[in-house]
Specification:
single chain; 197 residues; AhpD-like; 2 domains; 61% helix
Length: 197
């Protein structure tokens, strides 16, 4: 259970119920981060509009690479909700979900290409505190994906940092979106993760 309870539909304003209906229609259920954010309606609306806008805008980089970078960021930070949800999104996009089981060993696993390894290394460098991104790393990515591609990749990694840290701080854990396809974050000791492991 999250540290701040979700706003139940019966306690929600008409606008929040409308957002819930949209989310349920799109995802099958209301994501808990959305329902927790509903305590602050203006933040909820900013969150919802921003997520939809980002989804529509992100089309420069290959989707599989963006999803992999976002997933690695969530896994690195330790957000079980994001890992769970990210696995579902990858499965729905027809991407290689089995590859995620080898994310800890990406440097040596045959499941990853050199291109994927570069993106994962970049996601790791952005997620570090303090960040360890180098000029050479960015230059190599720009050569491959252009300025717009690297901006898109950086934005989505940074956005996942925001999502994962918000969820982790408020104790929001996996909801079962991935149907057990996700690997567990290495330090997730929540009751939910223990019960499902």
């Amino acid at each position: 259970m999250s540290r701040i309870p979700a706003v139940a539909p019966e306690d929600a304003s008409p606008l929040v119920r409308l957002v819930y209906r949209f989310a349920r229609r799109r995802l099958g259920e209301v994501p808990e981060p959305l329902a927790v954010t509903a305590h602050q309606r203006k933040m909820l609306m900013a969150y919802a509009v921003h997520e939809v806008a980002v989804e529509r805008a992100a089309h420069v980089m290959p989707k599989a690479l963006l999803q992999l970078a976002v997933y690695r960021t969530a896994w690195t930070i330790g957000c079980s909700w994001c890992v769970d949800f990210g696995t579902m999104l990858m499965r729905l996009d027809g991407l290689d979900v089995d590859q995620l089981k080898h994310i800890a060993d990406f440097e040596t696993s045959d499941a990853f290409t050199d291109e994927e390894r570069d993106v994962i290394r970049y996601a790791d460098a952005v997620a570090e505190t303090p960040m360890t991104v180098s000029d050479e790393q960015v230059a190599a990515l720009v050569e491959r994906y252009g300025h717009d591609g690297v901006v898109e990749l950086s934005y989505l990694i940074a956005l996942e940092n925001h999502r994962a840290r918000f969820n982790h701080a408020l104790g929001i854990t996996d909801q079962g979106f991935s149907s057990g396809d996700a690997c567990r974050v290495p330090w997730d000791i929540s009751e939910t993760a223990t019960a499902r492991a």
